[in-house]
Amino acid sequence: MVKMAKRPQQRTTMALIEGQDWNALLQRVGSHQDKDAFSALFAHFAPLLKGFLMKGSNLEPEQAEELVQETMIKVWRKAPSYSPAQAAASTWMYTIARNTRIDWLRKHAKISQQTDELVAEELFDENEESSPFTSLIQTRNSKNIKDHLGELPQEQLQVLTLMYFQGKSGQEVADELSIPLGTVKSRVRLALQKLKLKLSPNGEGTEAYAQ
Amino acid sequence: MIRHHPNTDLLTDYTVGSLSLAPTISVTTHLKFCDQCRDSVHSLKQLGGALLSDAEPETVSGDLLSQTLAKLDVESVTQSSAVDALADAQSTKCDDELKGIPNYLNKFLPRNGLSWRKLSSSVTVAPISVGETQYELALHKICAGGKTPVHDHHGVEYTVVLKGSFSDEDGMYHEGDFVVREPGDVHRPFATQHEDCICLSVLEAPIKLKGLGRVLNPFMKFQPS
Ligand SMILES: [Zn+2]
Which chain A residues are closer than 8 Å to B65 by Cβ? Predict the structure, then answer.
């Protein structure tokens, strides 16, 4: 009986790998501790993560690989809590990579004992129920991002890249590019508009938006 | 209903992880109250996922996968339970008056309880030390109907209303509202008549080390050695 059950499952993993269905593979890692599924995710995401972490940063390749490994180990450990209804695999991976980098940077910056207890995962505390609209918004966002990311002007993409890839604040990006903070902010906003990202109409935000 | 939210700039800095510790805690606290902003942050993370998927791949060492697989066998699933236990232990010790504030904050409260000290006849403050120097994190309590002294700001201040409500010259703020005061703003908040108001506040430290400040407070920064 056990053997019977195992065969179709292996075939499915293969099919998922061929279909590059990352969400389903991630789920399979969580539900079956499936190392084939994990290896397929690794083969796809590890080089992307390394490229993502190294782009424009002063990390050594070995440091970047250390981070890639830590990220993928967390992926394995956290996969049982992954739900495709709450996030796409890429969004989920991005979040884990971001948290891993934050913790790694803090560890290496040797901050006081006290903050060592706090890890990024706790600060962001993202194991949250999503709102009723979440999956609707997600579906629309992912289509819009796919349709429009390629259309962003270089200067907008550059700012987003510095912020997302290197975890830089608006102010740090302004310093690095020697442009005013206001210019950085407006490039981000124009990019988000162009991508038609669903962002809440913020009370104070809309005022600032109009400026 | 929540009317006051962090703006898009702040949510973006938050999402990419460039805010330091105390401001991050204040935004996460707001997200506990606010579905809208939680969805916004999710949207911004989707963009992060898309940028990751579009990143130029860098070849990884041939044995990185096998090394990683070998570590998976050693790793066990027990890692996160210690953290949960710690949070649980702390949550039982929190002051009665803090009932109803997001559980999330419990893990940042001192284990032996908060020490409230009087700022004025109607305002008490309990600092929360998270080992950060650039921002001060604290709980403020304004007694029902109490007025705070007029004050201005040398640095930016983020306030999240946890319980009750308060008003100032610009408006009224309820549970979950996220209020930003910029340097130079002068205001005089007062609590509503019938209820104490408890807020989480993050105040940029008054002493500014120009040029050096960011280097001295590398909570989420790193200069590779
Ligand atoms: Zn909000």
Answer: 39, 42-43, 46
